Amino acid sequence: MPTNVSTKSAGWEHYQTLGEHYDKERPGYPISAVHEIAARAQPLRHSSRSIVDVGCGTGLFTRMLADALGGSLEVFGLEPSSTMIDRAIEATNAIRAIRFVQSPAERLPFGDRTVGVITAAGAAPLFDRTLFYAEAHRVLVDTGLLAILQNKRRHETGFFQSFELFLEKFVPGYRTGTCADARGGHSVANFDAELASDNRFSKVMVQNWDWPRTFTTESFEAFALSTIQLKMARAAHGNEIIISELRSIMSRHCDASGNIDVTYRSELTTAVRTVQ
Questions:
Q1: Residue 19's domain is classified under what CATH number?
Q2: Over 60: is that where the pLDDT of 133 sits?
């Protein structure tokens, strides 16, 4: 049974009602980025055997990380949404040593200096990061690793360019380059700048991986329906208008087989807890 720590946040509450489509077509993450985090986690197993994936959703990245670690560290998946936690538990093979805990990012259920690595894959824009960074500093061991992984659409040309224009038109407050945030709106999330200006962390580094993805029109629609942005657009303009507009864009960019080729950039921002 998951441990429960209650919290309220305008951002993550959207995910309580997105479970129907969430698992179907999430983009995932390049295995090279997962292996980079796992490799940097291994030396820390001597000071802490715990790695915590915060805002884990249904556990997609948590499972990738646990597989890459091969059982060398105890893996926790933290998520405030009860719907997502239930799906994470259902989707996770019992062989994997993962413990899922219902908990907010802003109040981590761990003692001081007890965790070797904290990760956040795709969820950090939804955190109150002032509180999250303070909690990460509190629970990480000295030189413990904080790793934030975020997928970004390469929107310079092609389908993603049209999709961004669609989002700007129909999603209240959305602009290209912004993310859904903890206040229920959209804002820019500059993790590297935030961590570089925080003397509790050092050795801030940013790495990028570009990788291709092919959607069918059906799979992209399922993915889009799993996002906060489409939920907000449908609430503002009605389901019929939004689905019709989305399908129109897809029809203009898909090939004869109904496939849409896109490129993602996965950006990994890392920092270590400063020894104080």
A1: 3.40.50.150
A2: yes
